[in-house]
Amino acid sequence: MEQELIQTIVDFFKNNERQGPGCEEATLKALGLVSESHYFEHILDIGCGTGAQTMTLARKTNAQIFAVDLLAEFLDVLTERATRWGLQDRIAVHKTSMDDLPFPRNFFDMIWSEGAIYHIGFERGLKQWGTLLKRRGYLVASEISWTSNERPQYLTDYWMASYPEIDLISNKMKLIEDCGYIPVGCFTLPNAGWDNYYHPIIKQVALSIAQPINDSTKKSFMETIIDELIIYQRYREFYNYVFYVMQKK
Ligand code: SAM
Fold first, then answer.
1. Domain residues of the chain, as ranges?
2. Locate the Methyltransferase domain: which residues (predicted)?
3. Is 128 in the pocket of ligand 1 (CB under 6 A)?
């Protein structure tokens, strides 16, 4: 991705609570499906962004959290947040890519990834990240999924162009088993998780209409965001983020 677009993305998202759909209620619900998380020593949070879920994981477990993201400015915000909460000794940030993680094999009790595994692809993420998990370690990932097997062709085309790995929940569960995990549970994100993400964005879009953008990168980024918002408003009953909780065999 070119630098100008990356900077546009950083500037747009870094002051928002979250960089993807999600909410604390869902993070806690997923954590509730994980057994004995209070005994965990090491948790890896991949694609952590500015760390909304990282703070929850740090507060609700006793583990050392390794928070990974590609973008330093997001990690800076996360570090400020952790310091404000007095959690700086429990969270270490790593600016590194999710497809080349510099951690030992069989090291983590749990890997967590909210709204980010699509960057590497669900199947590839499950396979590669699994090597970092201890035996019986957990992987929890939220992933965009079809919630209906009948839907408008326009919507199918839109998502296939953006993320061809989007699939029905039943097919994702089968894939989880094929990738060497025991499926523990799954649930769809409540509407509050989308509201958390989209409410600040709607304000930003409104501001951009009031102050027209001349820069072509920013303009095309804003058009993409507006398309995404329209799709969500029109077709939200056909897809959702789904939390998948699984355990390494
Ligand atoms: N988990 C956060 C949340 O729910 O608010 C952020 C989700 S955001 C949709 C996806 C995150 O993945 C961004 O912070 C982005 O910088 C990060 N990301 C994208 N590509 C990455 C990569 N190759 N390696 C690590 N992080 C990456």
1. 21-147+163-190+239-248
2. 43-137
3. no
CATH 3.40.50.10140 fits 21-147+163-190+239-248, yes or no: no
Q: Are 107 and 134 in contact (CB under 8 A)?
A: yes
Among protein residues, the one with the nearest Cα to ligand 1's atom 6 is 49
Q: What distance in angstroms lies between residue 21's CA and the mean position of ligand 1's atoms?
A: 12
Question: CA nearest 109: which of 76, 135, 142?
Answer: 135
Tell me the ipTM for this assembly: 0.99
Indicate if the pLDDT at residue 83 is higher than 90: yes
DSSP string, 5-33: HHHHHHHHHTTSS-SSS--HHHHHHHHHT
Q: For the segment 29-57, what is each residue's pLDDT rounded down to a tens digit?
A: 999 999 999 999 999 999 999 999 999 99
Quote the ligand 1 centre to 117 CA distance (angstroms): 8
